[in-house]
Amino acid sequence: MTGRIRFRQIARAALAADPRMGSFSQISAWEARPNADRLPLLMVVTPVERATQATLSAFERATVLQVGVKRLGRDDLEDLLDADADAVEGAICRAFQQAAIVCLPEEVTVTLNTEGEQAVGTLISSFRIVWRRPIPRPAP
After folding, report:
1. Span 39-56, average pLDDT
2. What does the alpha-carbon distance between residue 105 and residue 43 come to, in Å, rounded to a whole number?
3. Which residue from 52, 64, 51 is spatially nearest to 128, judged by alpha carbons?
4. Among 5-14, 23-32, 42-51, 86-95, which stretch is predicted with the lowest mean pLDDT?
């Protein structure tokens, strides 16, 4: 199992167990315009990973883990997304600390779309996971 797969599994399990985020439907990819009946939605992805050679035998990797949330709201939509961001950060940081993996919050982005019948808000919480992986070597 690659690091990215493990990271997504840890994050999904942590969010499913969280009192606030556990009721959200988890999906694997965004839908451009999801049916309002399906909201709130939650998605975990690892879209970027950078590698640098740290030693002669290992790469240091920096993986970006993102948690996305889409939900309906009214005048309180941004406040709801801010509370979601706090819950996501707490659940993710605790889970990775328990797994002894360095995972630090990096960025929170909130987008509000009020063009439809109901306002839809999107939250993207980004985290950076730093880890090492051995450099593949030919078999002797």
Report:
1. 89
2. 17
3. 64
4. 23-32
Q: Is cis: bond before 40, omega within 30 of 0?
A: yes
> For 133, how many CA atoms within 13 A lie in the half-sphere containing its CB?
15
Q: What is the pTM of this model?
A: 0.88
- Residue 130: partners with Cβ closer than 8 Å, 6 or more residues away: 60, 61, 62, 102, 104
Q: Which of 113, 130, 10 is nearest to 67 (CA)?
A: 10
Task: Single out the residue of 34, 7, 39 nearest to residue 23, CA to CA.
Answer: 39
Residue 1's pLDDT is 56
Residues β-bridged to residue 113: 120
N residues, the chain: 140
- Residue that the structure tokens 């969010």 belong to: 15
Task: Give me the domains of the chain, ranges plus CATH numbers.
Answer: 3-132 (3.30.70.1700)
Using CA atoms, how far apart are residues 83 and 112, in angstroms rounded to an integer? 15
Tokens of residue 38, six digits: 């399906």
Q: Decide if 109 contacts 95 (C-beta within 8 A).
A: no
